[in-house]
Write a structure and sequence with these properties.
With 234 residues, this protein is of the alpha+beta class. It is 30% helix and 27% strand. Among the domains are: 120 residues, no CATH class; 34 residues. It is built from six helices and ten strands. The strands form two sheets. Strands 1, 2, 3, 4, 5, 6, 7 and 8 form an eight-stranded mixed beta sheet that branches. The chain has a two-stranded antiparallel sheet with strand order 9-10. A hairpin with a 4-residue loop joins strand 2 and strand 3.
Length: 234
């Protein structure tokens, strides 16, 4: 299930999507300006952990990405923990507003890897004990260092796997009125697209066959069109 969510933002960010769809990582956090042909982006990494009062969470509503703090008194009358397929706790992010509110920041090692592997949609995250940064032995009058629980992203060593059509549909449309029809339509459309697409091997073989056909039959447009109609996927 997808747990990496990239959303455009007008807030400062190091992550930037260029107009040619290339994801880039800046050295410094700066705001998008008219000088840039693209948009700033934020990454939100989610988990299936229980969402508690005051936690930040992500979900889809009528196809729209929602990032919000969970407050039971704020009008959300749904028990989000009963719908874990749709409501996800945000545990790591590049969003400075969430970081200031206690959500752990995504480290540079993962960001540098991710801009080279932007198709990755799911990453393994472990909760580990770590000595706080800035700690020196003896500063508390003993030899036992304090520890804190932090999230550690396990950077994939293999090619990242993409979502199935079913997972992608749920991620896109989330939960809400009419979501079932939209999900079914999305899945059927994906299946149709897969059936009508050509693999690299098929394209190569068709190009080879077409070249032989033209060599034997000459530059007749009508005959080429007939050949195309015969061999195209129906």
């Amino acid at each position: 299930m997808k747990n990496i969510h990239i959303l455009p933002t007008d807030k400062p960010s190091r992550l930037y999507l260029h107009s040619d769809n290339e994801l880039q990582l800046r050295t410094n956090i700066i705001r998008t300006s008219e000088d840039y042909l693209g948009s700033n982006q934020h990454i939100y990494i989610t988990s299936d952990e229980e969402i508690k009062e005051g936690d930040w969470m992500y979900y889809k509503h009528f196809g729209e990405d929602i990032v919000t703090k969970y407050n039971t008194w704020g009008g959300l009358n749904t028990n989000v923990n009963e719908h874990k397929d749709y409501y996800k706790k945000i545990i790591l992010t590049t969003d400075q507003d969430l970081i200031k509110d206690g959500v752990q920041a995504i480290d540079d090692e993962f960001l540098e890897w991710f801009v080279k592997n932007p198709s990755c949609e799911n990453v393994k995250v472990e909760l580990i004990e770590e000595i706080p940064s800035g700690f020196t032995f003896g500063m508390f009058g003993n030899d036992e260092p304090p520890t804190e629980l932090v999230y550690k992203i396990i950077i994939p060593q293999e090619e990242p796997k993409q979502e199935t059509p079913e997972e992608a549909a749920k991620s896109k449309y989330g939960i809400g009125y009419g979501a079932v029809d939209s999900i079914n339509a999305f899945i059927e459309g994906t299946k149709w697209q897969a059936e009508t697409m050509y693999s690299e091997e098929e394209v190569f073989n068709l190009c080879r066959e077409f070249a032989i056909f033209v060599q034997r039959n000459g530059p007749s447009y009508k005959k080429q069109q007939e050949w195309f109609e015969q061999f195209k996927k129906k």
